[in-house]
Amino acid sequence: MKFSLIVAVVVLALAQGSFAQDSSDLERFAQYFEEMKTKMTEMIGNQDLTNQADNFRRTQLEPLAAQVQEQLKSVATNVEEQVKPLTANIQAQLQPMLVDFKKQMEDILQKLTEQGRAIAN
């Protein structure tokens, strides 16, 4: 009788363990479906986030870009106004040097031409 009682307890313990395993599987399935639900919610939320980002771009960034562009135009105009006199000054200083350089090159070319004719004769 003791032996059959021990066997019955062991069988009940094994059955309980089997049910516990099934319960664990159910918990894993429940967790899996919960994760899927969370991912689906995030995907739907991301679409909303995309719409918010697009709206932010239109309402905030585009006007800001227009303001920056206007400021850059203003800065470019100021820089151009400051650079024009500098370039005119540099050009005025370089012009005599360039004329002198051109004259020297013409003289060298003329000498080479005369030497070439002298050698050819």
From TrEMBL:
The keyword Signal applies. Residues 1-20 form the signal peptide. The keyword Signal applies. Keywords: Signal. This is Type-4 ice-structuring protein LS-12-like. It comes from Stegastes partitus (bicolor damselfish).
